[in-house]
Automatic annotation (TrEMBL):
Keyword RNA-binding assigned: no
Record-given protein name: Bifunctional pyr operon transcriptional regulator/uracil phosphoribosyltransferase PyrR
GO molecular function terms attached to this record: uracil phosphoribosyltransferase activity
Naturally occurring in which organism (per UniProt): Aquirufa antheringensis
E.C. number: 2.4.2.9
The keyword NADP appears for this protein: no
Enzyme class: transferase
Name of one Pfam family that matches: Pribosyltran
Domain (Phosphoribosyltransferase) ranges: 6-152
Amino acid sequence: MTRKLILSSPLLEITISRLCQELIENQINGIETVILGLQPRGIFFAERIAKELSKHLEKAPSVGKIDATFFRDDYRRRETVSPNSTDVPFLIENKRVILVDDVLATGRMVRAALDAMNSFGRPAKVELCVLIDRIYNRDLPINADYVGKSVNTLPTEKVLVEWTEQGHEADRIWLIPQPE
């Protein structure tokens, strides 16, 4: 079985634009919105969201990146740990935080990111925006508020997101079979 293309340009740009319209529609009056991209690949999606939102809003939302490596429940079980940088140049206290990741699978990374966020303040509201939701794959009761595309996957399949910012020739999202 070969890999299958799930999403690419121009449909990807349309999907991002639609997600941004939903984010704008659900703004809370009087509460500032900030965006936190989950390291490593969620930051590329977060930057795309922020760029698109800046076209439609008077004030572009602040963007940060958060690494949840040391907050994962399997942190001490892993042989190798490669943490990424965290850069949250703002407080999240009393703000609407849009937590952004490329793929929502088991929910464990989102749970870890919520724990990591606590050191930056207590937000008024946290919403989750994901590009791909691997439905039927959840270990924890976590669901996204904003979903680009829902995909049925088997446990033996992997979703791979390729961004031009990572050096790929085009933005593409693949469903890849993994050896059992």
